[in-house]
Amino acid sequence: MTVVIHSSDITTESAFLKRRQLIQSALLLGILPAVQSVSAEVEAPNTIEQISRYNNYYEFSTNKEVIWKLAEAFKPHPWTLTIEGEVQRPRTIAFDDLLKQFPQEERIYRLRCVEGWAMVIPWQGFSLASLIKTCNPTSRAKFVEFIGLERPTEMIGQRNKMMAWPYTEGLRIDEALHPLTLLVTGLYGHPLPNQNGAPLRLAVPWKYGFKSIKAITKIRLVEEQPVSSWMRSAPSEYGFYANVNPDVSHPRWSQRREVRIGHASKQPTLLFNGYADQVASMYQGMDLVKYF
Ligand SMILES: Nc1nc2c(c(=O)[nH]1)N[C@H]1C(S)=C(S)[C@@H](COP(=O)(O)O)O[C@H]1N2
Ligand SMILES: [Mo]
């Protein structure tokens, strides 16, 4: 199940954790209905130190342990988000207005990196669907493209041309409108740290982490499947769908097991990262090996 807590209920990390314990007890007592198996979402979240000191963010560095430091000088404000393309009502919205227009909720999601590690992160944000709906997509809107920021003065990893900047990603329209797909504005009750994608990033919990693009500046509704940064730089390794799947190996490693950051031993990778009950129907009849 997805536990939804309004972020106004949360002030500090300890208050958050207390709240979390209450929910877990309620689940155990059967007070809250467990819609899905409680396997994934009730795992204890990683600590804020783990979440904010071990990152992937190639705009800054390929070294996970220094990104937080390199991102300290990044200025996420002011920020605007543009929604354009196959919509009847294109919009450019200031980040502060997004916060006012869309109530923020707390969502505890697993994040599974394609490299084989995973965390559980208490995000806050709002559903991407609620924003897209305000733009009235046309019938030609079949996919959604997300575009990151290009600012090499602050994002020093962009001086390295290892991939085409800005970072881009994409989803099929039904995936983008799925209620689990979250536009993230914070974690642990705090505004999003720079290293985690401030001020605005995506969280698509059933897909490998690289789909959850950070520092989004533009959302474009399009008719054709977009080519993401990773598909462009390594097409044989990174497909468009990137659904977490223990049975589909990366060409250079198995995806059968994963390391939960902070845990000593490996654990099995879950199909759709544990969200199969909620998302598998979108892929009925689709060859998940071919569309990896
Ligand atoms: N713009 C941008 N977004 C990105 C990345 C990136 O390099 N640039 N890395 C992705 C990858 S590979 C992962 S695993 C997650 C990591 O998110 P985290 O650092 O908040 O844990 O961000 C994703 N989003
Ligand atoms: Mo990743």
How does this structure look, described?
This protein has 292 residues and is of the alpha+beta class. The chain has one domain: Sulfite Oxidase, Chain A, domain 2, CATH 3.90.420.10. It has helices at residues 13-29, 48-53, 67-70, 95-101, 128-133, 173-176, 229-233, 276-279, and strands at residues 4-6, 80-85, 91-94, 105-112, 117-127, 143-147, 168-172, 182-187, 190-191, 201-203, 218-222, 257-260, 266-268. Strands 1, 4, 5, 8, 9, 10, 12 and 13 form an eight-stranded mixed β-sheet that branches. It has a five-stranded mixed β-sheet with strand order 3-2-11-6-7. The longest helix has 17 residues, at 13-29. The chain is globular and about 50 Å long. The relative contact order is 0.17. The model is unreliable at 1-13 and 26-41 (pLDDT under 50). The site of ligand MTE has 16 residues, from loops.
Number of structural units classed as domains: 1
CATH topology annotation: Sulfite Oxidase, Chain A, domain 2
What would the average pLDDT be, to the nearest integer? 90
Helix content: 10-25%
- Gap between N and C termini: 25 Å
SSE arrangement, N to C: EHHHEEHEEHEEHEEEEHEEH
